Recover the amino acids of this structure.
């Protein structure tokens, strides 16, 4: 799965999950991803991350494409228009995820795990923050895996185990284009993480890494809420023999209460703003202002921002919207 020998093309991507309508925060991240790749004269890839069927909301994949086209962000490869790395829809790419799991099994980097979430919560002897699971303890790894275990796992009519990635205990360090130097010891924060659930669902961590590698993405631009996944993804990329892309985690847009935008902020979806008469140039101009790309919010098109785009302009702080956001946008 290593990159081809020749110099790599410049390729960026936008990878939404079709779980709701695009809001101003998603649009801001997409705008930055688009600006960065266009500024580099590269290719912009759209990938649909629809691997979690219960969370998929019908119609939102098409709506996202329409909404970002309305904003003026055009892409070169993606669902609907195809491209050299098709398909661009994760639910149609499971053979690639299986091939990656086989590679990891051959390298001795995955193991079956039959413990439930409840078991793991109970096993935690020390209190841990965040209400989530404690790091998966290395002591729970199988001491020895029998030869042929993976072939038997695959042949089972109903596999009774999840597959976990065995992390190394070194420090992962990377330079984020917005957040600066990031360091994480995954063995202490998360431990061995799941790549395929017992019910057969592929984990986001596996799919995103395999797709970014195969689609030859050299720069990953996404929301800062995914910063905490990056060290895990780097370990996985390295285990698959691929080059690590550059990363840029764009700060989030918060509502007037200082919370991450959610379903409750449905007035801040691109659909709702459009229905309120906001023009794409007004939204782009406001987003550019929040990104530090212009001194005042003024109507503009994404391509007008190419000359000013620079990672140095971007603040690593989240952007909090005023409570009259729609009125503010209508005055841009
Ligand atoms: N599909 C993810 C989301 O919509 C983004 C994944 C990524 O950019 O790595 O939050």
């Amino acid at each position: 799965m290593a990159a081809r020998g020749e110099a790599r093309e410049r390729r960026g991507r936008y990878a939404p999950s079709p779980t709701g309508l695009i809001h101003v925060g998603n649009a801001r991240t997409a705008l930055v991803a688009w600006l960065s790749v266009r500024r580099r004269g590269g290719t912009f890839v759209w990938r649909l991350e629809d691997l979690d069927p219960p969370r998929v909301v019908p119609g939102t994949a098409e709506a996202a494409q329409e909404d970002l086209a309305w904003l003026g962000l055009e892409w070169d490869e993606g669902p609907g228009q195809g491209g050299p790395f098709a398909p661009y829809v994760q639910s149609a790419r499971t053979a690639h995820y299986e091939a990656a799991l086989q590679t990891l099994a051959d390298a001795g980097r995955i193991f079956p795990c039959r413990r439930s979430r409840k078991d793991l919560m109970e096993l935690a002897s020390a209190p841990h923050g965040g209400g989530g699971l404690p790091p998966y303890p290395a002591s729970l790894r199988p001491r020895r895996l029998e030869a042929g275990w993976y072939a038997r796992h695959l042949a089972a009519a109903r596999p009774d185990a999840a597959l976990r990635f065995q992390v190394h205990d070194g420090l992962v360090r990377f330079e984020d284009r917005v957040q600066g130097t990031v360091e994480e010891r995954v063995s202490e924060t998360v431990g061995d993480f799941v790549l395929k659930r017992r019910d057969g669902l592929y984990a986001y961590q596996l799919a995103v890494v395999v797709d970014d590698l195969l689609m030859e993405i050299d720069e990953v631009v996404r929301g800062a809420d995914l910063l905490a996944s990056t060290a895990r993804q780097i370990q996985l990329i390295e285990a698959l023999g691929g080059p690590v892309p550059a990363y840029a985690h764009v700060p989030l847009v918060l509502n007037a209460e200082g919370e991450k935008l959610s379903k409750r902020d449905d007035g801040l979806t691109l659909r709702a703003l459009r229905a309120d008469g906001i023009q794409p140039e007004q939204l782009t101009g406001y987003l550019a202002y929040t990104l530090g790309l212009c001194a005042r919010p003024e109507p503009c098109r994404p391509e007008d921002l190419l000359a000013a785009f620079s990672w140095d302009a971007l603040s690593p702080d989240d952007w909090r919207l005023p409570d009259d956001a729609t009125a503010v946008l209508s005055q841009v």
Summary: The first strand starts at residue 11 and ends at 14. Residues 17 and 251 are 18 Å apart (CA to CA). The first helix runs from residue 24 to 39.
